[in-house]
Design a protein that fits this description.
Blueprint: H1 8-25, E1 34-43, E2 59-65, E3 68-74, E4 84-91, E5 103-105, H2 108-116, E6 134-140, E7 151-162, E8 169-181, E9 187-199
Antiparallel strand pairs: 1-9, 2-3, 3-4, 4-6, 5-7, 7-8, 8-9
Amino acid sequence: MCPTNLDLRALRGVWLASASIAAALSASCNPTPASGQFDAQRLELRGCDEELLPWEPGFYTIDQFENRTTIRLQSIGGGIGQIDGIFIQVENSLVDPTNPDGMPLGDPALRAALIEQGVSVPPPIEGEPVGGAARAVLGFYESCPEARDVPEIIGRLRFTRFDPTNGGQITGFVTAPVVVDTRTGDIVGEVLSGRFSFVVQKGRPYTNFTGPGNQAP
């Protein structure tokens, strides 16, 4: 294999548009030095009968928007309907590689609702933006183009390296008790974990936006 204050479906459209451009511009596996893998005890998406996990990305890159970074861990494909990926958005100011607990991952309001249901997920923290410190969605559009869920990963994201400059290293670890369909609130996955590590490269086909921080020097 080479609900609140943040519309996951809209973000997914932005991320997927980025992914389709990258896929069209790249005819082979990403040459960026990288490794990663994700697995879960359970992941069941409506409209999908495929065994989705374990999964390893084949293309690693980032896009930057002001004080946020979107990490795109994706397969190589020819368009939106041919890309599998995990898309992670983080608030740069809240990333602390020295913190062994990492940062909460997921919509704070959704996490609070899950806690009320007895699910052990990180509670909202002081100073956390309304939209969350970090958000992550799954998109298996190559393997399951008919899947109807919008799965968000809920748990913790820990970075040991976070340098989003050209040539910098990003290394992160995800631990998530649950994956939730943001449209229905249903738990569609349990005990998901993952890791990723790659060297940042700017300019096409890695980054597709012309804003500050997205171009090669």
